[in-house]
IrrE N-terminal-like domain-containing protein
Amino acid sequence: MTIKAIKDFVESLYIDEFAISDAKEIDIEAIAFEQQAIVLEKPLNGCEAMIIGAGDRATITVNSGSDAPRKRFSVGHELGHWFKDRGKVGNLCTHKDMENPSGISRNRENVANSYASELLVPSYLLKEHLTGSRFNLDLMSSVKTTFDTSFMMTLRRVVKSDHHMGCFVIYRKDGSRYLFDKNSQLPGCFYPRDRVPEGSKIYDLIVNGVSTGPGEVDGNVWCREGWADDATVYEHAFHYHDDQFVSLVWWEDEEPIWQCISSKEKYD
C-alpha cells in the first residue's frame, strides 16, 4: 500500500466522517471504537501492543506501562494492521517492530507505522503547521505539543512530510552514526556520513563539548561530492538522550540539491 493511499484514506475518514479540523479533535481510541476495535490497557512483557481480530471486530491491547504518546502510537499502529487486514489479524508488536522493523515483517510493520503516523499527525493538518517554518528544534517541540506525539515520531513525521529539503541524523558519543531519515528527494551524496563530519555543529557538540546553537555551516560538510562548494546549509545539533546526539540538517537554499539531481538524470 502506498503512502498516498494511506493519506487519502485517513483524510476521507477524518474530514468526511469525523469532520476533524484541529489536532485536539483527534481521539485515537474513539476512532478505533468507530472502526469496531476496542482498546484495553494491560501490563505487557516483550511487546508494546497486540491486536486480536475476529470477523469485523477487534481488541487492541496496549502496554499500560508506556507513556501516553507511546500508547497513542501503539493504538494507531495496530489500527494500521486492522485497516489493512481486517478480519484476519492477530499480532504482537514490539517496540523494535514499530521503530525499526526488519526481516520478513518489515513491509507489514512499515505500513502499520505509516498508518499510525498519518492517524496521529494527518498531512492536511501538519501542512498548515509547517507553513513558513524552519527545520529546527523549536519546530519539533511545537508539532510534538500540538499533536501529543513522542519526539522521535514527531521528528520522523516532519522530515517525511518532505516540506523541508534535508534530513535528521543521530550520532553516538563515539562519533558513529546510529540512524537517519530524510526528505524523499534528497540525493545519496547528501546523506549523512557514517562518522560525524568535522566542521559540523554536531561535531563541535560531541567532540569538543561546545554547543553553538542553530545556524549555517559550510555546505561541503554535509555533502560527499562537490555539489555544495560555496554553499551553506542550516544545522541544529543537540543532545537527545544517553549517548545519542541529533542534528537537523536543512538545505534552505536547495540549489545544490537540484543541480545534483539534474546532473544525474542527464546521464542516466
Remarks:
- The domain at 165-267 is CATH 3.30.450 (Beta-Lactamase).
